Amino acid sequence: MSLPAEIWHLLLKDLRLEWRQRTALAGLLLYVGGTVYVSYLSFTLRGGLPPAPAWNALFWVILLFAALGAAGRGLAQESAGLRLYYYTVARPEAVILAKIAYNALLLLALAGPGLLLYTLLLGNPVQSMGLFVANVALGAV
């Protein structure tokens, strides 16, 4: 089997496993939503919306910690024996590239709703939303 086909099958396997255990994705979305809401409360108690640099920095910090939680969970959920099995049925580079692609898709799924909620609660100081969304998509990958 070719390398792209192995990556595709392993990626589909990871997506099917994630679909069976939706609580992990829901937990990550809850983390992002809760963090955005706490940020909203802290800035409204102060009396206004955050300035643009603080808005941007806080958004990226929230995404960074969501990414660390997602990547750590994705790598720690498989036992050593299962990883060894994957390395015997597929090339090691296919396994690693499939994990990278899966985590990129997961971060895109977190960044989209996170940006929407963040914009709804904390306003939108971004001047070019199209470029910012493209930047968020590239940052998630």
Description:
It is a single chain. The protein has 6 helices and no strands. It is mainly alpha-helical and 141 residues long. It has one domain. Helix 2 packs antiparallel against helix 3.
List how many beta strands DSSP finds. 0
The helix/strand series, from N terminus to C terminus, equals HHHHHH
Q: What is the terminal separation in angstroms?
A: 26 Å
* Count of discrete domains: 1
Helix content: over 70%
Helix tally equals: 6
- Classify the secondary structure makeup into a structural class: mainly alpha
Explain briefly what this protein structure is.
It contains six helices and no strands. It is mostly helical and 141 residues long.
Main attributes of the structure:
141 residues; elongated; 86% helix
Topology:
Elements: H1 3-20, H2 22-46, H3 52-76, H4 80-89, H5 92-122, H6 129-140
Helix pairs in contact: 1-5, 2-3, 2-5, 3-5
